[in-house]
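[job 4417] fold queue: 2 targets
>>> target A
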Amino acid sequence: MNGYWGKILRVNLSTGEIKVEPLPEEFPRKYLGGVGFGTRLLYDEVPAKVDPLGPENKMIITPGLFVATGIGTGSKTAFNFKSPLTGGYGRAMAGAKMGEELKKAGYDVLIIEGKSEEPVLLVIEDDNVKLVPAKEYWGLTTGEARKKAKEEYPGFATAFIGPAGENLSLISIIDTDERQAARGGPGAVLGSKKLKGILVKGTKKVPIANPEKLRELIKKWALVFKDHPATKADMEYGSGEFLDWMNRERGTFPTRNWQMGFFKKAYEKAKEEGREHIGIDPYYWAPKYRVGRRPCPLCNKPCSQYVKVESEKWGTFMVDGPEYETLYSFGGVLEIDDFETVAYLNYLADELGLDTISAGVTIAWAMEAYERGILTKEEADGLELTFGNGEAAVEALKKMAYREGNLGKLLADGVKRASERLGRGSEKFAVHVKGMEPPAYDVRGIKGMALAFAVSVRGADHLTSGAYGTELVGKWWKFEGVDRTKGENKGFEIAFHENLMAIYDATGTCKFSRHMYFLEGFPELVEAVTGMNIGEAELMVIGERIMNIARAFNVREGFSRKDDTLPYRIMWEPIPEGPSKGLHVPPWELDRMLDEYYQARGWSRDGIPTKAKLMALDLPDIADDIGAGI
């Protein structure tokens, strides 16, 4: 089975049983790998209505097809689980060295089930797999645990949860050697199972159908990456290189808990002094603080900006980033323009094991509640939770990870739970979709992305569709004349983007290379690795199949059209100032876009995949489970 080992490693933490099972024969052609394998297995193995923090939930780890093959940017591993944050489909992606090592150890899939009574580590070295007591690791930050593990298990790749995961924060992450599987609460899933970390070391070579052809293709694509203009920008300034453009030209950089569509303080300063004086702009901080790069495995265009900060306020620390999303979540949305504070918040979140997007947006909600007088100083544990107060944000972050004090208990599980606990009208400015806090795109001014947020199977998310570039630039690949300010004709656009991005997640290809590979690059790579001749049309069917299974998982949990909605602020409060002034997404416009999207998908008007569509995708069992009629 070229490209695959044909093996699933299953670990039961309740019984301690470890066994290897065959990968179903039809999986490679139907699902490719990565999220394809993970989504299908999640649907099959995690029944409806189980407690996401109970032993019945599973963590299913699936390296993409291209992982450990040498293909440029083919580094992504999928962490698949029922999300404790949303109660639905959970997926977190990471350019994880441990995913590469898992593949080299001889496994296509790792399924972790059950629950240990005491903290444990899972240690995998080729065919030698064991559970090890981890009492001495419990309570350590991700960095402390990683350092200890590297001393005890030299040469192993790692994946650890931090204190936030141990304390079952619903916005907690898994840190994979300073790459984070972050969204949806995967850290809480491992924390509930008392699994502190996973250590993996593999020495095998993935079987390749045509090694000589693959070598030629790797060289070919390396030259494409080398000469592409996006490569230089990403390498010099990281994923935040377009922050100024988003802020000053598009006015779609959410600020002050989404009250604004641009960072006014930074905007005005940039007009006077130039963008190189803006604290959170990489054109300022990357040349000044970067000391190296720590790219994902086999990356041809590393956006990593590894920085060293020597701060009077925060001491000396090193961190990879901050990425664009974190420059928003610990910068713009909190109105903090000081790079060293934003970087320290990033460092602290990684160490404590918190999702930077969710944590920042949750603190922003608390700041607005505090400034409105809805959240009292006593409830804020004495902190002056005002916008721009970096010291208060740092203390709030620590409290969240440990569920410490009134504020920590309030904020530890994200903005939806926090607003429900506080009440007092705070729900109106709690910005989330399906319980997940949104990334750094003010979709009031990006109508296609508003639809993408609403329908995303994992909650507010930019990467399920990856359509933000198409929307903001107005064109990409086969798309031309896209108007981000209009809601018409977005259904097909978003459905198509989602199907294509599912291929990237199934192969494990970084979406920052979608300007290079597009769709056309995949067939010859898939054939060289696996020997399977899968053309562009069949690849898109695979992507559509994956998206329908993910949707079916949510339908089985009770999700429908009612959940494909947007926050009050996005629907009812137009952007007040800046280049996108006056734009918002009223309910009637969202309804029209949903109709178009469901039509493009072949689903019912209530957003349920039809029996006909599921049968056409060769999913007869799911058609019987949840398929809608006409």
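>>> target B
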Amino acid sequence: MVESVIERITRGHFWDFHGGIHPPEQKFLTSNKPIKQLALPKQLIIPLQQHIGREGDLLVSIGEHVLKGQALTLSTNPMVVPIHAPTSGTISAIKMSVIAHPSGLSQLCVFLDVDGEDTWRKRDVCTDLAQLSNHEIIKKIADAGIAGMGGAGFPTHIKVSSKPDIKFLIINGAECEPYITADDLLMMEQSNAIVDGIKIIDRLLTPAVILIGIEANKPKAIKALQQATAAIEKIKVCIVPTKYPTGGEKQLVQILTGQEVTSGRLPIHDGIVMQNIATCFAINEAVRHDTPLIRRVVTVTGQALNKPQNVWALLGTPINFLLEQCSVENIKNEKQTVIMGGPMMGFSVSSELVPIVKTSNCILVPSKKEMPSAFEKESKEVECIRCGQCSDVCPSQLLPQELQWSAKAKDYSQLEKLNLRDCIDCGACAYVCPSQIPLVHYYRIAKAEIREQQQLDLKAEKAKIRFEARKLRLEKEKVARQEKHQKAAAARKAAMNKATPEATGAKSAVAAALARVKAKKASKGQSQVNTSDSQNDLPTDTAVDQKSQVATAIARAKAKKKLKEEAVQKPSTSDGIVDNAIEEKSASTQQASTDDKKEKIAAAIAKAKAKKLSKSAEAPDLEKDSDDTSPKKTVSSDDKKAKIAAAIAKAKAKKLSKSAEVPGLEKDSEDSLPEQTVSSDDKKAKIAAAIAKAKNKALAKANEGKVEVNETSLLTSTNNATEIDSKPLQPEKMVQNNIAESENKPVAATDKKAKIAAAIAKAKAKKKLKEANTVEENDRDGV
């Protein structure tokens, strides 16, 4: 087949494609003028995305100074090509700006303030391509940011990657748009560089034949390429008939090879690769001179310009700067129409700040006489008359009329069935439409909406996949954790069942932890001991119970009040006995406490309470006066009070006998007591009985001596014998003083009872001193 194609080309016989038109040419406006080098603009607006695919990651920030050729974005995906600084300057802004798009779409752009020095970054120039591997060449092409410059903008490094069985490499130099001459001038001026670029592609793809397709209306370009390729038999310069749109990829393939690329397929599927003339030049610049794609040839034309011509435009150059360089006539006229691209496939721009990008090859500024339809504010579109001319001229053999109906109805499924994706937006259908329907406009909008919907569907599908993967991962982690816990529990259980020191320690640790938890709960739920019910139930903590503090304060207040009311009083003969009884009660209470300080405080309180009782009784002299006035009444009242006091004292003694712990009586050299042979309970009972008897006798004598005993004071002093105070108790001295006082009283107890009481008090005092010394020694040892 290849041989037959070469033979046909040699004879000058080519195939034809369906449809096509012959619009009037206006190439003469710029075809005879060389490409002009322009001065540097003051500012460049560089879009991050200038090709098919997605934008790269930014490498620069605002305020950063960059050099010419420095990369501004990073390629992180095969469908991403980087952009570079067209000249040196400072990044003044990174923001959204209007780009070259039919809808006036805004996109993220880098604003570069040009410094005018045009300083290059360091470049690695390659003089011998044999030193580079194919992989290094492809990497240079990718790093240079080269994308298809014929209009599609497909990343070039993907198209030139090594592929097997490439039959034809087609270089597209047709340039079929009526006004555009950018490729024509480039072939005339840079034919050798273009051929060098073709050689690089040939090395990467190794095709069987290389075909350069040029329309017959470019004689100078044809001659230049024929001379540059004369020594290369593999390259064939093919002069094809002038017809629009011969420059379409599928159309040129069919003209040169006779193969029709069916719907849904690409030329690469049939072993055919196509590259644009400008792309070949850019490949040579990148591989040999380490020059990234930062400029391109742009045809600035139209009858509204005084100096239409082709210029080398830096990428990012605003359109208004190019128009100034070409002396536009109505630059201040707001109604002036500016078209990006040719009259057939171009579109009007919404702002003159729209920048030049990698796929921009023409800026058309027509006059009103030249293109009256471009200046009409309202469309003259009318209903379709179903003439069928659009179908006749369609190079892709589509049904433009039905496509337009489905596009207006947003019936995307029907558009898919009608093969809308095969439309190349050539505009031939709109050109011949008698109803002036902008068919291409409807197709472009429909394609954009379909593309957007596909992207949303793709994102949704990816999100669904991620969600399902996350859900599965979480379930696996949950199962793994459960298995891990089960294994750990089984291992602990097995280890504890073994008779090993580790297992014993683990059991002990578990038991200790459980015990601590139980103790903590018990300590929280335990109620404090009420000290008001029993005088012997003292708290074991070092801090004094709150209730005891309150009771102490109340007792002290009552004592102070009583002392103020009864300022002049004399001691009674019963003080010694009552004092001894209270001392015995205080000693029995102190015996239950382990704290030396509390024992001393309790003894001091007992002493104070005894003194209070001794003062509470009225003096005999004062009672005599009252007896003289009413003897009968006083005697009867005294008897009644004496009985009540005796009953109270007896009850207190019984209570003390049950609660107090009284140690065994010890023998003394001075006042010996009979040896005790009964049990400790009997001893306690006898002692309590002796105390009660002593109290009764004291009350009786007080009654006989006309001494009034206040039962309330006696009861209060008995109940509060253990109240806290700050002075320590000296039991021995108290016993001696009480004995001495009892000997001086006019009314004294019998010698036998006095000796018993003194012996009891002395024994208790000695026992207390001994326990106090023991507690002090224990405290020192603990410290």
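[job 4417] complete. Note on B: The radius of gyration is 60 Å.
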